[in-house]
Amino acid sequence: MEAPYTSLAISLAHHYSGAVLLCDLKSNAHRHKANALAPFLRPGAPDSYGGLLLRTKYVNSPAIYRRLLAKWTWIVSTKAIRRGWPDGRTPGESAVDIAKIASLSLNRWLNSPCQVCTKRQHQQVLGTPNMSGKVCALCNGTGKAPLRCHAGIRQYVLDMIKELAEDERRCVIRASMRLGRVARS
After folding, report:
1. pTM of the full structure
2. CA dist 84 to 155, 161, 169, 181, Å?
């Protein structure tokens, strides 16, 4: 399932960038696609959660990131209540730091490549651009940087990263379906 989703995300980013680059022209083939994607990706678009997710991932604006982080922190806090995460009310129990979990999970979802192998999963042969047959020692061949956080919140952060990935998948599919409707019309 990873490959079709990835190609949808790449297609979405490609159509959006083409539409944005050409949207000032009076007659262009991408104008309808730009209009279809505007609710999801345009910097001035309403602050829907899905729109913020996609714009943060593909447009990369600090202002959009701050709005998404605020919205994501609220979403994590509601998930924490529904899932019964420790809230510190029980004697001997410390509350989980919702803001920390939200920030760590969002940052990890946005940018998690291994700094040693840069997602290539293998060690580089010293002095050359070639990759060796040895698996990267830092990421153990996953291509993702190891998650560094307190052991007490690690599982909460991992759960929220999965939630973000699923939310992104749903948004990309929704935006791609919208693109398909525009292409057929």
Report:
1. 0.71
2. 14, 18, 26, 41
Domain enclosing residue 93, as ranges: 2-184
Give 149-185 pLDDT, tens digit per residue.
888 899 999 999 999 999 988 888 877 777 665 545 4
Q: How many domains are contained in the chain?
A: 1
Distance CA 95, CA 85 (A): 8
| Cα 184 → chain centroid | 28
Residues 124-138 have pLDDT tens digits of 778 887 878 888 888
Neighbouring C-beta atoms of residue 169, cutoff 10 Å: 15
Sign, Cα dihedral of 115, 117, 121, 126: negative
Cα separation, 156 vs 167, whole angstroms: 16
